[in-house]
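Lab notebook, bench 4. The sequencing result for the construct came back, and we need a structural model before the next group meeting so we can plan mutations. Quick request posted to the team channel:

Model the 3D structure of this chain.
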Amino acid sequence: MIDKNVVAFTGKLDSLECAAEIRAFLEKHCVQYIELTQNQMIDIGGILPLMELDV
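Done. Here's the predicted structure in C-alpha cell form:
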C-alpha cells in the first residue's frame, strides 16, 4: 500500500493468472492500483518501509 486506498504492483497485473480476482477484490474494497512497470510481475516483498507520522 502506498496510500490509504492505493496499492502499487511491481509489474503488469495482467501477467498474473489471477488478475481478474485481484481486480475484483480491490474494487470490492475501493482500492485503486498502479503498475510500476509494464514488465512481468515480480514479488519483492516489503522493499519500501513506509511510516505514517502523526502531524
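The longest strand covers residues 6-9.
Will bring this to the meeting.
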